[in-house]
Design brief:
CATH topology of the domain at 54-191: Lipocalin
Strand order of the largest sheet: 4-3-2-1-9-8-7-6-5
Number of helices: 4
Distance between the termini: 112 Å
Shape: elongated
Number of strands: 11
CATH architecture of the domain at 54-191: Beta Barrel
Helix content: 25-40%
Strand content: 25-35%
Order of helices and strands: HHEEEHEEEEEEHEE
């Protein structure tokens, strides 16, 4: 019995030893594969972004930076008559990718709309939108937010086709906006205008002159020097008498809206 027990113990020890050796070998293989995989990842280069792709990404980040923000503004009517110059206290909300005016929504029936964002080289964020109302026409907004976190802009309110009210506005400083939103640098390649090459104009070569042979006698043939080139003349076109047409009354086209800064 003792011999059997000893043999059993020896077998167990050999089995444990073999398992330990296999695990150590497997760990060594993993350690050898790890640097190789890291080198492979370094070798695989990430896709290069174009300057336009970088600009679009920066614009998206800037739009996300001013989203979910609130701005207290003062609207001032632009008119030469000081008696008609009025001011309106309003609040602008940027919420979930849309912009809304508290005054226009509560009093004039306007609705929130999407807004677009553009960037300037001096780290200015420009936003624009167009809002509609069933009874009060169209409202065109344009605002600029600078590093000092003050927003300035204009509102062109087309109440009717014949009634347009233009306002300028300025906000209080909004310290809730992260200053890093304005720390962007646009790629210079994306700011260069696209140069369109000129369309080549085909060069027409004049047709060779028609040489009419001069007949002579058999005794005195005509020399080549005496042949005179005859140039074909263009046919004369007789002037036609202009036909007078009856002038039709022109219909008045509706006036196209413009921002106040585009006039």
């Amino acid at each position: 019995m003792r011999k059997i027990k000893l043999m059993y113990l020896l077998n167990m020890l050999l089995l444990i030893f073999a398992v330990c050796i296999n695990t150590n070998a497997a760990e060594k293989k993993k350690e050898e594969k790890a640097p190789a995989a890291a080198e492979k990842k370094k070798a695989e280069k990430a896709p290069e972004l174009t300057p336009q792709d970088i600009k679009r990404q920066i614009t998206r980040d800037a739009k996300a930076g001013i989203d979910n923000s609130t701005w207290k503004i003062t609207l001032t009517k632009m008119t030469e008559d000081p008696n008609k110059r009025k001011t309106i206290e309003d609040t602008i909300y940027f919420r979930n990718g849309k912009v809304e005016s508290e005054y226009l929504i509560k009093n004039e029936g306007f609705t929130p709309t999407n807004f677009t964002v553009r960037l300037k080289e001096d780290n200015t964020i420009i936003w624009e939108t167009m809002q509609t109302s069933a009874s009060k026409g169209l409202a065109f907004w344009r605002g600029e937010i600078k590093k000092n976190r003050i927003m300035r802009g204009a509102l062109s309110w087309h109440v009717k086709e014949t009634l347009i009210e233009d306002y300028s506005f300025i906000s209080e400083p909004n310290n809730n906006i992260n200053a890093k939103v304005f720390e962007f640098e646009l790629p210079k390649e994306a700011l260069k205008p696209i140069v369109v090459p000129p369309i080549p104009v085909p060069v027409t070569t004049p047709a060779p002159p028609v040489i009419k042979p001069v007949t002579g006698t058999e005794e005195e043939p005509v020399k080549k020097e005496e042949q005179v080139p005859i140039v074909q003349e263009e046919p004369k076109v007789q002037p036609q008498t202009p036909v007078t047409e009856e002038k039709k009354p022109t219909e008045e086209k509706p006036r196209r809206w413009k921002f106040p800064w585009q006039r």
